[in-house]
Model the fold of this input.
Amino acid sequence: MECLEIVPATADRFDDITRMLNPNGREVACWCMHWRQAPHANPAERESHLRALTAQDPSPGLLAYLTASGSAEVVGWLGLAPRSRASSLQRSRVLPRRDPAEWDTAWAVMCFVVRAGYRRRGIARAMLRAAVDYAREHGGTVIEGFPVDAGGRRVDVSRAFVGTTSLFESAGFDIVEPTAASSAHLPRWVARLDLT
Done:
């Protein structure tokens, strides 16, 4: 019997974070830092920046582990943070910026990664629901995502890293407004859930 466990991505789990975000050991990888670093930050510093964030509370993300036959395997990552820790999101020209007074309590879901072989099993949905709980436990009053509207079609994983509107709706989010952003020529929307 399989069991899914979702936990904060803490410093002691950095090897598993690496397995999710840079499994091929590329010299320059995203490391889920797009919204967390200034636009002209050195890409070679992404890993060390994320490592430093994993030593802080709240964690910069969640990890999903699937346990079968007594062995746990990391299968998913979800990046999230309060807007106060997402400097590029604060200055975005294509996503809503929101009132700076809300940045400490307004959380953003940044990205999803589910390993090949484990997709289409509800792992992203479970991580999103866990993200809602995690944001609420850390004083969040609202949580938002910026998913693509796939129009019912399947979307390539590299284009749907922000999630889909149907995924967010399945976790209780409202799709509230279009953005000026797109992914693979698909429109991205604001998905919002009030946590109060």
